[in-house]
Design goal:
Layout: E1 4-10, H1 16-19, E2 20-26, E3 34-43, H2 46-53, E4 71-77, E5 89-91, E6 102-106, E7 111-112, H3 119-122, H4 128-137, E8 147-150, H5 156-168, E9 171-176, H6 181-187, E10 192-195, H7 200-208, E11 213-218, H8 222-231, E12 237-240, H9 253-259, E13 262-265, H10 268-274, H11 277-292, E14 300-304, H12 309-316, E15 324-328, H13 333-339
Parallel strand pairs: 8-9, 8-11, 9-10, 11-12, 12-13, 14-15
Antiparallel strand pairs: 1-2, 3-4, 3-6, 3-15, 4-5, 5-7
Helix pairs in contact: 4-5, 7-8
Length: 341
């Protein structure tokens, strides 16, 4: 009997709880330059749900398996693979579909991750921490002691900004919509945690003693983004990487004319595709170092097996969670079979 794996699949776009199915598929076989990877863990990100609904900029060919992020272990390699050993824990490419028990991947597209990093944490390092790292380095030449302001500071990317900034000695103004988040983010290292309301400008000036802020990170849009634009210094850069409010960025002409603000966007998928392997490795090396030392941790509310995907995606779509929702894979037979070959 041929061996099989389980994978979550959708054949049409729609509500995740309606279109997702758990299906059995043949165990894939690696080509000469590929590796067979047994999945260990994969998070459910908002972009994953958007892709299932057909609302994401990139639409895979259907039927498709969701999941833009995940970690696994190499259990077999093709004859031409030289720089990747069986047993290596690896981060998967973002366009693969990680909600499955196993997959084959071109070996050159895999990123080896230290085994000291717990699998669920390793599974979440590629999107939000890497987004935070790149936004803190690619747009403004920050120096120790400089201030950064961000909205949606309680998001996974926002928390990564706090953690990385703390280690690099940048100071953060963290804007949130709920008062109960203020003490929580202060405990995690946020220098100032303020409510996203009409008093934000004055509160920021008080918290920073009027220091200029040259970099703002916007994941919300609408009125929240406008408040950031009014706060930052002339010539500052505002990087938009999300649109949680589903409202466009609308600005008075004066902010452009008299403050000469610079507006740009960032999408980690595009950076990842355009970066050289050396650039990706360099960025991951710093992220791995932080994670290994416990300086970069994503909050996890609960883990689910693939078979409980209905409950998992329903919870991931809800607001006010205590952390990420993660799939944990238990395909113990995958890899054992190859050990016998």
């Amino acid at each position: 009997m041929s061996e099989s794996i389980k994978a979550i699949v959708y054949h049409a776009h729609g509500k995740p709880e309606e279109v997702l199915r758990l299906e059995e598929q043949p165990l894939p076989q690696p080509a000469l330059d590929e590796a067979l990877v047994r999945m260990l863990a994969a998070p459910i990100n908002p972009a994953d749900l958007n892709a299932i609904e057909g609302k994401y900029p990139i639409r895979p060919e259907l039927p498709a398996t969701p999941g833009m992020e995940g970690v696994g272990v190499v259990v077999e390699i093709g004859d031409r693979v030289r720089d990747l050993a069986i047993g290596t824990r690896v981060i998967l490419p973002h366009n693969l579909g990680t909600w499955r028990e196993a997959c084959v991947v071109p070996a050159a597209r895999l990123v080896a991750v230290p085994n000291e990093i717990e699998p669920a944490q390793a599974a979440m390092l590629k999107i939000n921490p890497l987004t935070a790292w790149r936004m803190l380095h690619d747009f403004v030449a920050l120096q120790p002691g400089d201030w950064v302001i961000q909205n949606a500071a309680n998001s996974a990317a926002g928390r990564a900004v706090i953690q990385i900034s703390r280690e690099l000695d940048y100071r953060t103004v963290n804007v949130v919509r709920r008062a109960e988040l203020i003490e929580e983010l202060r405990t995690e290292g946020g220098d100032a945690v303020l409510l996203d309301d009409d008093n934000l400008r004055a509160a920021t000036a008080g918290a920073t003693a009027g220091a200029p802020i040259r970099l703002a990170l916007n994941a919300v849009g609408g009125e929240s983004a406008l408040r950031l634009a009014k706060i930052v210094a002339p010539e500052a850069t505002i990087v938009t990487y999300g649109a949680m409010s589903l409202r466009p960025l609308t600005l008075p002409n004066g902010l452009l004319i008299f403050k000469n603000l610079h507006f740009t966007g960032f999408w980690i998928n595009k950076w990842y595709d355009q970066a050289t392997p050396a650039a990706r490795q360099e960025a991951f090396a710093r992220i791995f170092d932080f994670a290994r030392r416990g300086l970069l941790q994503s909050k996890i509310e609960r883990t689910y097996p693939l078979g409980e995907f209905h409950a998992a995606v329903a919870r991931a779509a809800e607001g006010m969670r205590a952390g990420k929702i993660i799939f944990r894979m238990e395909a113990k037979n995958v890899g054992v079979a190859f050990a016998r070959r």
